[in-house]
Structure formats: structure tokens, C-alpha cells
Design brief:
Strand order of the largest sheet: 4-3-5-12-6
Oligomer: single chain
Largest sheet: 5 strands, mixed
Number of domains: 3
Family: Belongs to the LysR transcriptional regulatory family.
Keywords: DNA-binding, Transcription, Transcription regulation
CATH architecture of the largest domain: 3-Layer(aba) Sandwich
Pfam families: HTH_1 (PF00126), LysR_substrate (PF03466)
GO molecular function: DNA-binding transcription factor activity; transcription cis-regulatory region binding
Number of helices: 11
CATH class of the largest domain: Alpha Beta
Strand content: 15-25%
Shape: globular
Number of strands: 12
Structural class: alpha/beta
Mean pLDDT: 89
InterPro entries: LysR_HTH_N, LysR_subst-bd, WH-like_DNA-bd_sf, WH_DNA-bd_sf
Amino acid sequence: MNFEQLDYIKAIVENKSMSIASQQLHVTQSAISQSIAMLEKELGVQLFKRSRNGTSPTEDGLWIIPKLMEILQKSNELKMDIQSKTETFSGKVTIATIPSIFMTLLPEALASFKKDFPLVHYAISELENNQVLKAIEQKKADVGFITLTHESKSLDNQLIYHPLNQQSHFHLLVSAKSILAIRSEIQLQDVLDESFILFGEHFYSSLTKGFEEKYKQLSIIFQSSNPEVIKKSVAAGLGVSVVSKTMIEDDPYIESGRIKAIPLIGYPFNFSLSFGAIYDRNCSNYKLVQRMLTYFNK
């Protein structure tokens, strides 16, 4: 048994898929499969079973895997304790992030990291997904926080992808005064006559491109990289918007009842979003970034 195998198991359990785990870890699916098979042979039990619905623990796996995850967690905690005693970080780390991570995971993780390493300072840019990728590739940022897309699945070999324990689904934002607000779920086909306010210029447009070619071009009245502008416009009844659930967690517009978030089902939003961090293995702040990222999975 080795910790690499435990990392593989953790990724498979979180994603319920060996293929997605291989994409996130940037390891071939066959390598993961062989490594897990070796561990199963060593333990004398089968840990996973495959079906049309993905990869899930076997009956033995249901009680063994949590114990293996405890070992991995204790190992990570020990490494962090040792590093905190022997390493001191200082200087500035440059961060590029999509808004949904900026509004959820980033503040708390950085606050915890800053308590342990008060000499580290931050420069943070809020960008679209493709812009975060470019910032890392062009070495304009030390670390970037993105959602996993077809672009990020084919990263340069110099870049490392670090998965975060965060997934999300798509929701349609509508004004509380809209007749659509009574819906418990909705498909994009149901709102073809609505005016749309989309986040950014690239991410959602790329998702809806195939849909528009098959059905009808959406009426997009404007696009904005400012989530506050989008939510305020939707609340006023100017149009509807598509966002990830992560972007509206603990949102005052939702909690006050000014807008409603309706789960989107069906094509092209019939998948969940996975989030992660990317950084260059040759980055001057390589060790600092690695240490900082451990605070995101606590």
C-alpha cells in the first residue's frame, strides 16, 4: 500500500468515476486501474465495482475505504505539522480566480493560511475561466482557480491540476415576480423566448453554442463579469441568467426572495462542474502554492 494509491481512491470516490479521476489527477486511467488492482490484491478484497452509473464502492469497499481515507488524512496532517515547524513562507503570491471560488472557498482558506504564515501577502485577480488559464500559462499568476472544462482537461505538461472538494450544478436565475419562479426545475428549451444576461464572454457562450445551432439562438441582451450586476438586473426583471450553484451560495438576493434559483436540467447543462487549482511546476512560488492549497481541503 502507498499514498499514491490512496490519492487515487479519494479521487474516484469524490467523482464516482475512474475516468474523471484520471482527468483531474492527470494520470492515465489504465495506470490508476492497475494501481488499484494491485492494492486490492494486497488487501484480498475488491474495493470498487463499475456500472453504467459510474464507479462505486463494493460492500467491502464501503467499510474499508473510510479507514483508508483516515490513513491518508492523518498522513497529510502529519506532513503539514512537520512543514509548519520547519518552513517559513513570506512574500507575495499572485492569484487568478473565477468568481464562484472567490466568493466561497478562497476567503476562508486564505484567512486560515495567513494565520499560520502572516508574512505572505496576496494579489488577487477575478477573471473568467479561460482568462485564468491564460494568466497561468503566461506566468502572470502563481496559482489559478478554475472550473474543469474541455480546455483545462488538456493542460500543458508544465501545469499541475489540484482538485478541490467542490462540485456544482447549473441554475436559472429569475426575478421573484416572474411566472417562472413557481417552477421547481426547468430546461433551457422552456425559456427560449426570455432575454438572457450571461456571465462573462466565453464560458456560458461556449456551453450554449451547440444548443443554439440545434434549437434557436438565445436573446442575449448583455454579458457581464460582475455577478452583482447580473443578480441586480435579474431581480429588476431585465432578464434571466444561468449560473453555477456555487456562485449563489448564501446569496442575499436569494435569501431575501428578490430572485429565485431554479435547477437546470437537460442539455446542455446536464452535467456537474468540478473545481480545482492550477499552477506551473516551475513557478518560483511552487512550494508556497503547494502548502497554501492544503488549506482548501481541510
